[in-house]
Amino acid sequence: MLELGFQRDLHRLNAASLALEISDVRFNAVCPGQIATRMMAGTLAIPGRRALLESRIPVGRLGTPEDVAEAVAWLLSPASSFVNGIVMPVDGGESAGLKTLALPEISAGL
User: Which residues sit opposite 87 in a β-bridge?
Assistant: First the structure.
């Protein structure tokens, strides 16, 4: 998780720096979590893997592409006109660390 945290912090720094430098354009980033896409099909085909991943997410499910699209649409809308320089996690609360578990069996199987 250290690598993911570093990437999130790097995106946050970039978004904030750009927001400060260019005042007439808003800079925000979206940081998706575990999203059920074709790219995850191999991972989700492993018996028990989906349940294991979902157990780490406070909302109890993987995200959908529509979840990410809704966040992006909101950031593009006038409703977010005062939002600038943020990284928005779209991960069902996983990055908040509310249900993070030590899962050595995942990394051992890679």
Answer: 29
Within the chain, residue ranges assigned H as helices are 2-21, 41-44, 49-55, 65-76, 104-108
Angle, alpha carbons 13-60-77 (nearest 5°): 45
- d(C-alpha 29, C-alpha 6), whole Å: 14
Specify whether the CB–CB gap between 83 and 26 falls below 8 A.
Answer: yes
**Cβ within 8 Å of residue 57, ≥6 positions away:** 33, 34, 91, 92, 93, 94, 99
Q: Give the C-alpha separation, 11 to 91, whole Å.
A: 16
Q: What is the mean pLDDT of residues 78-105?
A: 82
Q: What is the rounded CA–CA span in Å between residue 58 and residue 101?
A: 12
List pLDDT tens digits, range 49-79.
Answer: 999 999 999 999 999 999 999 999 999 999 9
Please report the pLDDT score of residue 14 as a whole number.
62
Query: What H or E segment, with its residue span, contains residue 90?
Result: strand 87-90
